[in-house]
Amino acid sequence: MALTLEQKIIQSKKVIRTALEKFGAKKFAIAWTGGKDSTLMLWLYRQVCNELGITIPACMFIDEGDQFEEIEDFVDRVEKEWNIPLVVVKNTDISSKAGAVGDIIIVNDLNERNRREIELLDFKDKTFPFEPESYLCNHLMKTVVMNKFIEDNELQAVSTAIRWDEQDARSHEEYFSPRHNPIPEHTRVHPILHFKERDIWDTIFKYNIPFCTLYYKGYRSLGVKSNTSKSSDLPAWEQDLENSSERSGRGQDKEEIMSKLRDLGYM
Fold first, then answer.
1. What is the pTM of this model?
2. Domains defined along the chain, listed by start
């Protein structure tokens, strides 16, 4: 028997409550992208933390170096309105050497950590273009940054807003997913796995949860600016969510290597 929307919310809050009680807010972080899923997840954490009378854990926002201005504005606004303990993390070693997408980066100019991560991918070239959602740059700009944040703060858990129905590589995930070498040892917490895309929008409108204006313009899944397009001229929630691909507007090269990226610690 299918769960109702309220039952799905209750299930998510149960996962969150269990995670907070197990790991504690100080050794816990929430990965917030400013997208619809992670903002709904953040709303759920605020609900549970208020119920428990505790401070919400740190929220990690990864700056990939090619953000939509609308996402940046939205994150700034919600951070202030919800009093979010936001931490913006970025691979500044890479971004300092690439002023724009497509700029060429020399491997030997990078710091030891980035060179080591490049070797891990068995990349042999001496240069590479800055393309945030390529296999190499996605790893350097997102996964390495997340792993370093976990290491530096000695985190025991990180919560992300992935869902079973959004991508094949995520369809077998569990609510609590231990991660080990080459990833810093920790647990990934996935409280909205059971939500479908339609559930996300139904919850957003029922509870007046804020969302980025790009969804009004026809975007359904938000990645980097240079590699994300809208799916339709219709607002996201008015599109045929059940019979079309949510991530069709995302760079498909990344979609094809998602399993490899996740093995390295990607969300």
1. 0.92
2. 5-263 (3.40.50.620)
